[in-house]
Amino acid sequence: MKTTISVIAFAFIYNLGISQKGQINIEQDQKINELMALYKSPKDDSDYYRIQVGFGSSSKAQEIKSNVEIDFPQLSSKIVFESPTYRVRVGRFKTKLEAERNFMEVRAKYPDAMLLKPKKSTN
């Protein structure tokens, strides 16, 4: 029993003696922080009017997006996930007039469509 305790004590003391202590300094270019901030910020769609044509599960959103691309090939479309649904949005309009013109066309085909205003008002 004394031998076991002695071996354990010796191993513990030996481990303390050879363990390494150190300090790590990381130096990085300031541009990395700027790039990280840019990466974390959402794509700045907040300056644009958009039209939401539908929402639902991922597969439903894909189906809606495919139909929208066929019906309105001139408008860019994308799927945005806002918990708990996927939303299909089209267009990026700088002016309210341009957005409303396109909204009338889209709404004729998709009656549930909604015009989304930018977070930062342009008018």
TrEMBL record:
It comes from Kriegella aquimaris. Signal peptide: none annotated. Pfam families: SPOR. This is Sporulation related domain-containing protein. SUPFAM superfamilies: Sporulation related repeat. Residues 42-122 form the SPOR domain. PROSITE patterns: SPOR. One of its GO terms (molecular function) is peptidoglycan binding. It comes from the Bacteria.
